[in-house]
Design a protein that fits this description.
Strand content of chain B: over 45%
Helix content of chain B: under 10%
Strand content of chain A: over 45%
Largest interface: A-B, 26 and 22 residues
Largest sheet of chain B: 6 strands, mixed
Number of strands of chain B: 11
Distance between the termini of chain B: 41 Å
Mean pLDDT of chain B: 95
Largest sheet of chain A: 7 strands, mixed
Number of strands of chain A: 11
Number of helices of chain A: 0
Structural class of chain A: mainly beta
Radius of gyration of chain A: 13 Å
Order of helices and strands of chain A: EEEEEEEEEEE
Shape of chain A: globular
Low-confidence stretches of chain B: none
Number of helices of chain B: 0
Distance between the termini of chain A: 37 Å
Mean pLDDT of chain A: 92
Helix content of chain A: under 10%
Oligomer: heterodimer
Shape of chain B: globular
């Protein structure tokens, strides 16, 4: 159980393109979903926390107009990188936490490798 | 806020030997400590977790110990196998919050 599906797994696109990444909890309802960015050989950097039906909470230094997050249902959250530039190239990972989140793990998707040319 | 430190950053062991990764945390309110394994190009996968009302938990070759007084917890892998090679992350989270605070990761290499 506790499967999180993230799509696409790999995106290569031109500078200026907007890219949407989907994160779905397949077998549980996720009150909260998290979006991380990971640079090579580094830990996970939290970008934002999204709760179903409300606005996402962004970490300091993360541009909310650049990284649009929507959490429209208990099983789906999306991250849209708007007008992407080469510096946005990275590995983006989502995670989801169930309805009763106290002392429960986050379950991660397999990440999206974004490459902006 | 919470600060999680993880050591070592890299670890190489011979197949069959044990591996130990240690983490410390700063916030005494943290009460949930998961461990994740991340293989190259993949997302982190939960391998074991421990809650603050327990001092030790074991699942086959993997065990985690927690010392609340000293604010540290450790991952123990016995009889290591090449497929255990990956990056391992510890995390801590307080009961009152939603955010996980991750360690900086340990790259484990098991040498056949």
């Amino acid at each position: 159980g506790a499967v999180v599906s993230q799509h696409p797994s790999r995106v290569i696109c031109k500078s200026g393109t907007s890219v949407k990444i989907e994160c779905r909890s397949l077998d549980f309802q996720a009150t909260t979903m998290f979006w991380y960015r990971q640079f090579p050989k580094q830990s996970l950097m939290l970008m934002a926390t999204s709760n179903e039906g409300s606005k996402a909470t962004y970490e300091q230094g993360v541009e909310k107009d650049k990284f649009l997050i929507n959490h429209a249902s208990l099983t789906l959250s999306t991250l849209t990188v708007t007008s992407a530039h080469p510096e946005d190239s990275s590995f983006y990972i989502c995670s989801a936490r169930g309805l009763t989140y106290s002392n429960q793990p986050q379950h991660f998707g397999d990440g999206t490798r974004l490459s902006i040319l | 806020g919470e600060n999680v430190e993880q050591h070592p950053s890299t670890l190489s062991v011979q197949e069959g030997d044990s591996a130990v990764i240690k983490c410390t945390y700063s916030d005494s309110a943290s009460n949930y400590f998961p461990w994740y394994k991340q293989e190259l190009g993949k997302g982190p996968q939960l391998i074991i977790d421990i809650r603050s009302n327990v001092g030790e938990k074991k699942d086959q070759r993997i065990a985690v110990t927690l010392n609340k007084t000293a604010k540290h917890f450790s991952l123990h892998i016995t009889e290591t196998q090449p497929e255990d090679s990956a990056v391992y992350f510890c995390a801590a989270t307080p009961s009152t919050g939603n955010q996980f605070y991750f360690g900086t990761g340990t790259s484990l290499t098991v040498i056949p």
